[in-house]
Amino acid sequence: MPEWTDTAIIIDCRPHGEHAAIVHVLTQHHGRYAGLVRGGQGRNMRPIMQPGNQVSVSWRARLDEHLGSMTMELANAHAATIMNDRMQLVALTSICALLQAAIAEREPVEPVYDATAAMLELLSSDMDTPLWLAAYIRWEIGLLAVAGFGLELDRCAVSGVTEGLRYVSPRSGGAVTSEAAGEHIPRLLVLPGFLGGDAKSLEEDVINGIRMTGHFIARRIFGVHHQPMAEARQRLQDMVMLQFGKDQFDKDQFGKNMASDITYDHPSHEEG
């Protein structure tokens, strides 16, 4: 009888029958898994079964290919903290939706788990919104890489130089300089300053970043399956555009290094 125990992040929970629930989790060592939690709709289990919570989970089934059953204990109640901030809550929902769409079931992806756990810690902290959004954008870039659609943002796709990068090709995902872009600039995505581009105002950098990753997520994760962008991810982008279009932030407080806390030690896989 196959069974294992692991740490995990809940990414989805749906009622099943009168008392049970089907729960999807991202585990540290076993990848994305689903399982039946008996009593998952009960009063004692409901606070645990919230997307974003970290849990200790045990899974067992008669055969590997079966759904299996899960038991779990709460390790870190991120959801309760994140629910106090609307944009953080939408970001959490977006993270869960993207993990469901981009990560193959039962494929170990420890770098994704580690980066997601770090991202949840930032969302649960009192870090300023623009700082954790910069980290979130890096999280999305890492997710694209692990899913097989890495972006080449550290050198010019045309000339190979590493300085003066300003734009990103919406087709190849490669960065380019102004000189290499030439007359194609109006059709290119802007590389934000915290990713090595020309630093602009804080709101412009974050807007450009969320636009850039949104384009590739829509095209390369959802588009290849002829699906629309995840509603939660689109809602987050809309909220960023609205808030950062109105609010002004002190550019000097924008620590570029803060975003580098969310990284994936995983090789990128570029399109051919």
Fill in the keyword field for this structure.
272 residues, alpha+beta, OB fold (Dihydrolipoamide Acetyltransferase, E2P), de novo design (two linked rop proteins), 2 domains, 5-stranded antiparallel β-sheet, 22% strand, disordered C terminus
Topology (SSEs and partners):
Layout: E1 3-16, E2 20-27, E3 31-37, E4 54-60, E5 69-76, H1 78-82, H2 86-102, H3 110-124, H4 129-146, E6 152-156, E7 165-168, E8 174-177, H5 178-181, E9 189-190, H6 202-222, H7 231-246, H8 256-259
Parallel strand pairs: 6-8
Antiparallel strand pairs: 1-2, 1-4, 2-3, 4-5, 7-8, 7-9
Short characterization:
The protein is an alpha+beta fold and 272 residues long. The chain is built from eight helices and nine strands.
